[in-house]
Every structure is written in structure tokens, then in C-alpha cells.
Amino acid sequence: MAGRDVNGSSTQYVQAEQAFVLPAEVYASIPQDAAGRGISNIEQAGLFVGRTEELSALDAAFADPGEVVVHTVHGLGGVGKSALAAQWAAGRSETVRWWVTADTQAAVDAGVAALARALQPGLAGLPAELQAERALRWLADHRSQWLLVLDNVEDPADIRPLLARVSGGRVLVTTRLASGWHRHATTIRLGVLDPADAVGLFTRVLTQHGPRNTDGVDAACAALGYLALAIDQAAAYCAETGTSPDVYLDMLDRWPAEMFDAAAQGGDSARTIARIWRLTLDRLTDTPLAGDLLRLLAWYAPDRIPRDLLTDMAAPPGLAAAIGQLAAYNMITDNHDGTLSVHRLVQALARTPDPCDPHRHADDISRARDHAAELLANTYPDDSHNPANWPRYQALLPHTDALTTHHTPDHDTVYTAAALSKAAAYRAGQGALAAALHACERVLTTCQRVLGEDHPDTLASRNSLATAYRDAGDLARAIPLFEQTLTDRRRVLGENHPSTLNSRNSLATAYRDAGDLARAIPLFEQTLTDTERVLGEDHPDTLNTRNSLAYAYRDAGDLARAIPLFEQTLTDTERVLGEDHPDTLASRNSLATAYRDAGDLARAIPLFEQTLTNRTRVLGENHPDTLTSRNDLAYAYQAAGDLDRAIPLYQQTLTNRTRVLGENHPDTLTSRNNLAYAYQAAGDLDRAIPLYQQTLTNRTRVLDEDHPDTLASRNNLATAYRAAGDLERAIPLYEQTLTDTERVMGENHPRTLISRNNLAYAYQAAGDLDRAIPLYEQTLTDRTRVLGENHPDTLASRNNLASAYQDAGDLARAIPLFEQTLTDAERVLSPGHPVIAVLRMNMERARSVSDPNAG
User: Fold this and answer.
1) In 3-state terms, the chain is what percent helix, strand and coil (to 5)?
2) Which of 696, 617, 599, 688 is CA-nearest to residue 650?
3) Amino acid 47: pLDDT
4) Of the listed ranges 315-329, 364-378, 531-545, the one predicted with least confidence
5) What is d(CA 187, CA 183) in angstroms, rounded to the nearest whole number?
6) Most confident segment among 101-115, 196-210, 453-467
């Protein structure tokens, strides 16, 4: 007998024992189950996109002949397994192609019996068991003439009797179950749609009845995780209700429970993503930890969740079983590299309470959120400055961000605060100051709410926030917060508590950063005395405070007190901590810096070289401290006028910092600035100016307009313009920098005084002595008052004012000022300091102008 298949070609059928006839409409009903229920709008409407690789894989999988060829497509519920099977089956040439909804053994039997009735309608009056037997005999006898699609198989055992009876044909299985198929079939895992295909599907469903507003389609598809069923149903909902995709996205964010369960009119309400996944979890009730685990994973980022983050959640056998069950049903993905992934929509659903869903009770979800925070807090390493810990911090940061984004701060616990605090410490060290600052603010708010204003952890979080403000250059907010924290720690913990002493040191450091050495130095001195008394001479905190005091003396230009204190600190640190301890190496570097500032390069350079060698050996080539040593050694070479060694070292340091720390790390930006400065010193302004411009752009973007380093970059670029003779660009930039520095750092900050000095120098270079001289005089007065008579910057101001007097022809004031400055420099600075030679040359030049016959 001749019949027609669904492709319209004429096919000759082989007669079986009974006259089984395939009506033309049999495959036309696919995909339907035995009761005639449509499986999804995607297949019914014929809307199928992409999946070319998967379709080709199925073609290849079924190309080989065999007794019976069985392949399984598995994936997350709603990912589009049935749609893929329908699309692929529609293009096949087998005589009989039959679809069976196979989620239970009974459904399989019913589907096979329905095949018998389709092949021979006269069998309708027989018992279902006999109908199924007739169909099985037909399939066994008509090899390579048929294709069965067994859709949504929940248990391989349900189809095992069927597979045992058939041969020579083709069987395609779709299932959410990834495991258990090795004895029956090869498997193909189906993932989410390609983003472009997802957008195409959404747009086609949305506009199938005419043009519609498609604003936000891309964002909606991303929010739905490119899951085929979710996209189809969202697009159908938008088409039916007149909702634009961007409005739908807002509704999904504000009313997730309702939107996850929404189906358009005529859609299959039983196949919303909420109901599909509930059925999956229903099958895992014998593994209660699986539900707990899924609810917990919902609070992390969807990709690359470290598996060992979950170690404390349960005993290893139980945890492994729960992970295995969730992976088997494609609810999570084991990446087989120590990490897990979860579809973002699965996570969103698991975070959304629904009193009607036993897997989504509000109390269970809240417990999972708090447990997720606890696991994160306990997994972070303690030392964020140790590069060996950085990969761990980087792995945990996305999950901390996800956790704290998915709920409001009023749900934060002490564990949330602890995880945020550790993440903030790492980010601050990496230069991500804005993110660190925001986290510190949230941590303090949480500690105040949960622990109270006076809890030690609250006080510690306030100190951390003040430190973040200081690192960001916001001393106007940092200093009052440091002061408040010190007052509170004195009251709560006592004068001599180590945390109180730490607060005093932090406040003194902030005063020093603000240029207020009159308050910084006495506070450092008092803190050092108290720390020595309370903790002992050799305690690390004592050594740190001594080092901080030495830095304050150095900033004040009092190298006569700074250098001996640096030397004492280095000696004590070597004795207490050992030659190779990182703090010892840091102390050695600090002493070398003081020698350099004193102009004693004969002692500074060997000490820098020794420190670099030791840090390279102890910490490694790429440790940030090693890179700092390399930078400082380059700076010392430059100070010695040895640019042939300085520039290559700066270049190497910039390359290494860019690779190790990243383009935008503050240390990388400093290296770029220093290399530009070395190019300028070498007279290579063609390379210096673009590098200064790039550094200013990056610092403005990364650190903010008003950060001290950004202001320094603006000053340096103006200096390069001036050196290039481009005073039209230099002077306005100097003026802007001075205005901003006065506003941000205060009238008397050393950097403000530098800006004022440089603007005066630019006016002098432009021949505008009427503006230059008063500005020099003001700067000298202020430096003398703020920094003292003998500070190197004060000496520089005196020299510059003398030079301006000379340019104005006022040698009667210029020469005595040059002489006084040289005398003071010889007394204050080390013999052979380069500044002394410059001052002597300036004085002799002024004398020669005054008396051409002199000398």
C-alpha cells in the first residue's frame, strides 16, 4: 500500500503480520503526548532558532547503522530539549516518526499503545496492553524505518523494557537527567541559547502578529539567562499584554514570584519555569541537603562557585551526594575544575519565596542566605596583602558581590560584614578604592545595627572606614572619623588597649598625610612612648609606630632625627623578626629612602640594591614589595643623574606592574608617572608628555578628580608643558591645580605649597614677575611656618625667591638670600648633596652679575 509521509514524498510500506497503516496525519500531531497535549508554544508555533551545532551533532550521532541507535539530549528544564528534538525529528526521513511523553512508565506504555492505534485504527477496541504489544512487534519487524522520540524521561528504568524489545530503529531521548544513561545511550548536553538566537526568538514571538516595541530585548534575554522556555513565555506575555521588554524586566525585578509563574493566554501554565523546577526538586526529596544546597548556591554568582566553599556545609559523603543529585538533574553544573555553576534563573527562582512551593519557604531562603554569608566569611584568607592569597580573593569576590547585591543591607549579618570587610581590604590594596569605600560604609552600618555603637567590631569597622577615606584622599572625612574612633576606644577599651594605641597611630598618620605635622609628630611620639610601655620595646606594633614617627620627622625635613630612628628601627626589626622578614625588608627600604632624601646617595643606592636583591629572593620577582623596591632604586639612580640605569628600570617596573597588578592599580599609575618624569629629566618631552597625559586621564577615571595623586598628575603635566615652553597650557593647568589642591588638601598642606611654588615659577618663566614674586614670598612665609626654617622645601623656596629677585634686577635682595640659603643647606643637608652644588652655582652667578670683575 502506498501512503504519504509528512514531507510529501511517496513511500512504499513493508507489510507486517497485521495491516498496520500509517495515516498521513500521524507525525503532523507531533509533538503531542498520548492525551494530545501540546508541549510548548515554541514547537506549536513553529518558532525555533539557532541550535545548528546541536542539530548537526544529532545528525552525526544517528548516522551510524546498528541494531538500535539510542541517543539522549539532556539539560535543565526549560532549556529547549523538546523543541530541539521536534525540530530535528521534523527533518528526518524515517517512515514512522512517533513522539512519546515518557515521564513515567505508564506514560511510556500509553504512548506506545497510541502508536499501535495510529498504525492500525482498528486496534482501538483492544486492551492497552495488547495495543502496546502490537506496536512493539511492528517496531521490531520494521528495522531502520522508524524514529521514536521519548520526551522528558525522568528515570531510565521507565524506558528500559521498550529499548529491550526494539531493534534497528532510532530512539531519541530527552531528559533533565544527565547521569544513568551509560548502559543505554550516548548523551548530548543542551545548554542555553546563544545570545543572538535568544534575542531572535524573543523578537519573533513578540512581533509575530505585527510590529511591537522591542526596547530592552537584549537586557531581558540576559536577565532570563538565555533559557529558551523562559524567553518564549516572557515574549508571549509581552505580546499578549502589550508590555515592552524593558518594562517586563522591571516587573521581573520587582515581582519575581508572579512573573516566574506567569504564562500567556493559551500557553501551558503547567510548564512555567517555576513549576518545571518544582517537579525536579520533588524528585530529590530523598536528599534534603540538595534543596538546602540549591537555595544556598542561589546567593552566589552563577559561574565558578568554588566547591570547597561548601566544605563546612555537611559531611563529605552527604555533600557529594547532594551535588551529584543536583548535577544529575542539570540543576547545577560541575565544571570538573573544582567549581560549580548554576543557571541565573534557577538562582533567581530559588531566592524568591513562594508559600505554595515547599522548596521556597521564606524561612528556608533566609537561612540559606545567612549560611552563604557565613561560608564566605570563613573562607576568605586573613592576609589580603600576601600575593599567595590573591587568587583566593579573586575567586571569592564575585560571590561576595552577588550575595550583597541580591538582598538589602538590612538583612546583613555579622558574617556578611566580615566577608565585605575582607573583600574591601583586598580591593583597597588593589586600588579599587570606590568599591572598597562603599563596602566599608555598609560594614559599619551593619555592625552598628547588629552589634551596637560600642562593640569592638563596630569600632574596628569605623577605623577601617576612616582608613578607606584616607586612602581615597578624603581627609576631610577621614580625620573626624579617626578622632571619633579614638575617643570611643579610649572610653570603651581604655587608654592602653592595643586597639586604642592603633587608633592613635592611625590618627597621627592622617594628620601627617594632611600636612599637619604640628599635630602628627607629638601624637606619634606619645603613641610610641605608650606602646613601648604597654606592649614592649620589641612588639611589632612598637616597631611600626617607631617607623611611622621616623616618616613624620622625614616629612618635616628633620632628617637629623628621622635617620637615626630609621636606623634603630631597622636594627630592632632585624633582631626581632629576622633578616628576611617582610617588615625588615620594608624597614631597610625606608632607611634607604631617608638616605636618598638627605642626598646621601652613596649609602642610599647600595641599600636599595640590597633590598631589591633580598625581596626578589624572599618574596619573588612579582611581589608588590619587590616591584616597589625596583621603582625606588630607579628613583635613586635618577637622583644620582644616572638616567641610563634609571629609565630601563622604570620601564621594566611599569611592564611588570601592569602585568601583575593591572593597568589601573595605583602603583601601576605611579610607575607610569615616574617613567614620564625620567623621560622629562632626559629631555625627551615627546615621550614624557603623552605619558603624563595618559596617567592623568587614568588617575582621574580610577581615583577621582580630587584624589591627591590625580592632583599630582595635573601638576606634573603642567610642569612638562612648562619645560616644553608651552606656557599657554602650563599656567592655566597650574592655576587649576592650585585652586583644587587648596580646596581638597587645605591652604597649608605641603602639596599646596608645592603647587603655589610651581605656579610662581611658571609666572617667572613667562616674565610676569609682578605675579611671581608675591607668590614666591607667600610660599616662603608659609613653608617657614609650616615646615620650618631648615626643611628642604623651605630652602628651595628661598632659592626660588632669590632667583626671581635676580631676574627683577634686585641683586641687593637676591645675593644675601642666595648666601643665606647656601649656608643653611650646607648645615642641614649631607655633604655632596646635589642641591648644595646648585645653590652655590646660583649664588656665584648672581655675584658675577653684580660684579663682572669678581673672581
Assistant:
1) 65, 5, 25
2) 688
3) 62
4) 315-329
5) 11
6) 453-467
In angstroms, the CA 78 to CA 223 distance is 15
Question: Within 13 A of 500's CA, how many CA atoms are on the CB side?
Answer: 16
- pLDDT of 258 reads 73
Residues 6+ apart with CB under 8 A from 837: none
Q: Are 720 and 729 in contact (CB under 8 A)?
A: no
Which residues, at least 6 apart from 223, have a Cβ–Cβ distance to it below 8 Å?
249, 252, 344
Alpha carbon 623 to chain centroid, angstroms: 21
Amino acid at 427: R
Q: For residues 553 and 520, give the distance between their C-alpha atoms in angstroms, rounded to a whole number.
A: 10
> Using CA atoms, how far apart are residues 48 and 507, in angstroms rounded to an integer?
65
d(CA 178, CA 442): 42
Element (H, E) at 607: helix 601-619
Letter for the amino acid at 697? T
**Comparing 211 with 8, which gets the higher pLDDT?**
211
> Distance (Å, rounded) from C-alpha 431 to C-alpha 704?
12
Q: Rounded to whole angstroms, how far apart are CA atoms 336 and 356?
A: 35
Contacts of 163 (CB under 8 A, 6+ apart): 68, 70, 171, 184
* Cell 603624563, located at residue: 692
The one-character DSSP state at 74 is E
- d(Cα 679, Cα 89) in Å, to the nearest integer? 69
Q: What angle do CA 7, 65, 2 make, to 5 degrees?
A: 35
Is residue 189 within 8 Å of residue 74, measured between CB atoms? yes
Report which of 58, 60, 89, 59 is spatially closest to residue 73, judged by C-alpha positions: 58
Burial (Cβ within 10 Å: 0-12, 13-18, ≥19) of residue 51 = buried
| Count of C-beta atoms within a 10 Å radius of residue 361 | 15
For residue 180, the model assigns a pLDDT of 66
Element (H, E) at 60: helix 52-61
Give the relative orientation of helices 582-597 and 540-555 as an angle to the nearest 10 degrees.
Answer: 20
CA 239/CA 212 separation, integer angstroms? 8
Distance CA 428, CA 431 (A): 5
Residue type, 776: Y
CB 399 within 8 A of CB 301: yes
Helix 105-119 vs helix 156-165: angle between axes, to the nearest 10 degrees? 40
DSSP 3-state assignment of 208? coil
Q: Which residue has the cell 642666595?
A: 818
Q: Is the peptide bond before 398 cis (omega within 30 degrees of 0)?
A: no
CA 533 to chain centre: 43
Nearest to 440 by CA among 456, 418, 455: 418
Distance CA 462, CA 445 (A): 9
Q: Which three cell numbers stand for residue 585?
A: 625588608
Alpha-carbon gap, residue 456 to 488, rounded angstroms? 10
CA angle centred on 470, ends 464 and 472, rounded to 5°: 105
Close Cβ partners of 164 (under 8 Å, ≥ 6 residues apart): none
SS3 479: helix
Distant-in-sequence, close-in-space partners of 743: CB < 8 Å, separation ≥ 6:
706
Query: To the nearest whole percent, how much of the chain has pLDDT over 90?
Result: 45
Nearest to 92 by CA among 144, 14, 38, 29: 144
- In the chain, the N- to C-terminal Cα span, in Å, equals 129
3-state class of 186 per DSSP?
strand
746: cell is 587645605
| Amino acid, single-letter form, for residue 224 | L
Q: What is the DSSP string of 328-368?
A: HTTSSEE-SSSEEE--HHHHHHHHS--TT-TT--HHHHHHH
- What pLDDT digit, counting tens, does each position of 289-298 carry? 988 999 999 9
3-state SS class at 333: strand
Residue 52 burial (CB count, 10 A): 10
Q: Look at phi and psi of residue 300 and say left if phi exceeds 0, alpha if psi is from -120 to 50, else beta.
A: beta
Confirm if 373 and 415 have CB atoms less than 8 A apart.
yes
